[in-house]
Amino acid sequence: MAATKTTIRNALLASVLVALILASVVDCLRTGAPHGACVTMTPHHNDPKVGYYAAQTGAAPFSIMSDVQSYNTNSTVRGTFSSNLKSEKLF
Q1: pTM of the model
Q2: Which of 1, 14, 62, 78 could in theory staple to 67 by disulfide, Cβ–Cβ 3.0 to 4.6 A?
Q3: Distance between CA atoms of 62 and 84, rounded to whole angstroms?
């Protein structure tokens, strides 16, 4: 019985420790990202081999069609995702 209490206590302490460590690496801002983060609206995905990827200039390789043109809070919107690419190239 004492071993079970010790095991539970150790598991609880480990859980609290993990939660504290995770909380220390998360940066939450209640108003969202800083204003300067989205000034250019250009994604900056960096690849160490080629540098930053250029913005796409051609048509998107997929389309998303919605069943409504406008919506309100709590309304349901259904959509269709389609592409002429093979599925393994999409994701």
Answers
A1: 0.32
A2: 78
A3: 7
36-56: average pLDDT: 67
Q: How far apart, in Å, are the Cα atoms of 67 and each of 44, 63, 73? A: 32, 13, 16
pLDDT at 80 over 60: yes
- DSSP H helical segments within the chain, as ranges? 2-25
Residue with tokens 């999409």: 90
Q: Could you tell me how many residues make up the chain?
A: 91
Q: What are phi and psi of 71, to 5 degrees?
A: -150, 165
Assess whether pLDDT exceeds 80 at residue 68: yes
**Do 44 and 54 meet the contact criterion of CB atoms below 8 Å apart?**
no
Q: What proportion of the chain, given as a percentage, has pLDDT over 90?
A: 0
Query: Is the distance from CB of 45 to CB of 52 less than 8 angstroms?
Result: yes
Question: In whole angstroms, what is the distance from residue 79 CA to residue 54 CA?
Answer: 29
